[in-house]
Amino acid sequence: QVQLVESGGGLVQAGASLRLSCAASVRTVSIPQMGWFRQAPGKEREFVAAIRWSALYYADFVKGRFTISRDNAKNTLYLQMNSLKPEDTAIYYCAADSAGMGKYDYWGQGTQVTVSS
Q1: Three-state SS string across 23-59, please?
Q2: pLDDT per position as a tens digit, 6-40
Q3: What value does the mean pLDDT take over residues 83-107?
């Protein structure tokens, strides 16, 4: 069982930065893949970024602006978000693929990010 708790969301102006954190209840070094997803009002949940062991993956719409990382000493996943845009407004979710089978089987409760223009 893996529990994930996100934090760091908030209300910011366009162009600002935020860093989201996702604290895991287990050692993240043992989780093959972790990722960030988001869901905007009226839209489906979409992939944002993932880290599989040391490989990094990003959605095209965040490349160059967002950076995913994890600190295994703190059992925490991060998403550094720079140059935020109003269209980045969404609930951001952390997820874990505990078996490395390409399926996220644990999810956090989400943290709200709102970007004003």
Answers
A1: EECCCHHHCCEEEEEEECCCCCCEEEEEEECCEEEEC
A2: 999 999 999 999 999 999 999 998 899 999 999 99
A3: 96
pLDDT at 111 over 90: yes
Judge whether 60 and 71 are in contact, CB under 8 Å: no
Dig out the tokens for 17 from the structure.
Answer: 């930065």
Element (H, E) at 89: none
Rounded Cα distance, 57 and 35, in Å: 9
Band of pLDDT at residue 63, cut at 50, 70 and 90: confident
> Is residue 68 a contact partner of residue 86, using CB atoms and an 8 Å limit?
no
Q: Residue 9 to residues 23, 27, 39, 78, 84: CA-CA distances in angstroms?
A: 14, 23, 13, 12, 12
Handedness of CA 46, 48, 51, 55 (dihedral sign): positive
Amino acid 54: pLDDT: 86
